[in-house]
């Protein structure tokens, strides 16, 4: 970002938008922008008041069993859903297992896919082609998916910012 800004005209308007602004980016903005203004909506590091959180602590080896129980129960399963995992391989394995074991149309989405493929999956999800998307954190950034009814965080994220985005 710094190398790009060196090639821009001195008179310009620069805007940053993010659901969260890590300290490193805030420092960068302070160092590179003229009189930066930070606008915060809501309470920093908190999730939406419209989100109801339910935490279920289970042993690692029982996670899949508990998730499948939710997905098979038509009283608790409310598609469309997103299930977050921490690895590309995890998205592929879990999506396939859900599709087979739960009779739920599930598909994997991760950052190593071409953008065109990710966009096609997202379009299919929004159109109702898939009931569940098993994704890495790539799906948590910069998207506001109003139609999503449930989010399962299958693998705990490593930071609070990741959790908030998910």
In words, what does this structure look like?
There is one protein chain. By secondary structure, the chain is of the alpha/beta class. It has 2 domains: 31 residues, no CATH class; 106 residues, P-loop containing nucleotide triphosphate hydrolases (Rossmann fold). It is built from 6 helices and 4 strands; from the N terminus they run H-H-H-E-H-E-H-E-E-H. The protein has a 4-stranded parallel beta sheet, with helices on both faces. Strand 2, helix 5 and strand 3 form a beta-alpha-beta unit. The chain is elongated, with a radius of gyration of 19 Å. The two termini are 25 Å apart.
Which helices and strands, and how do they pair?
Elements: H1 2-5, H2 23-32, H3 63-72, E1 81-84, H4 88-101, E2 106-109, H5 115-126, E3 132-135, E4 150-153, H6 160-165
Parallel strand pairs: 1-3, 1-4, 2-3
Percentage of residues in helical conformation: 25-40%
Rg:
19 Å
What is the mean predicted local confidence, pLDDT? 83
Strand order of the largest sheet: 2-3-1-4
The total of helices stands at: 6
Provide a short characterization of the protein structure.
The protein is of the alpha/beta class and 166 residues long.
Descriptors for this entry?
alpha/beta; elongated; Rossmann fold; 2 domains; single chain; 6 helices; 166 residues; four-stranded parallel beta sheet
């Amino acid at each position: 970002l710094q190398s790009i800004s060196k090639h821009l005209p001195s008179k310009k308007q620069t805007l940053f938008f993010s659901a969260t602004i890590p300290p490193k980016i805030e420092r960068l903005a302070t160092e590179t922008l003229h009189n930066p203004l930070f606008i915060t909506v809501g309470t920093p590091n908190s999730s939406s008041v419209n989100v109801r959180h339910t935490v279920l602590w289970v042993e690692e080896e029982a996670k899949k069993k508990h998730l499948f129980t939710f997905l098979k129960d038509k009283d608790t399963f409310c598609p469309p859903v997103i299930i977050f995992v921490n690895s590309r391989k995890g998205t592929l394995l879990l999506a396939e297992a859900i599709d087979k074991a739960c009779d739920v149309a599930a598909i994997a989405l991760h950052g190593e896919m071409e953008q065109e493929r990710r966009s096609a999956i997202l379009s299919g999800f929004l159109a109702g082609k898939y009931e569940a998307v098993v994704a890495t954190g790539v799906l948590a950034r910069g998207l506001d998916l109003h139609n999503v009814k449930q989010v399962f965080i299958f693998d705990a994220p490593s930071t609070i910012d990741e959790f908030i985005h998910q």
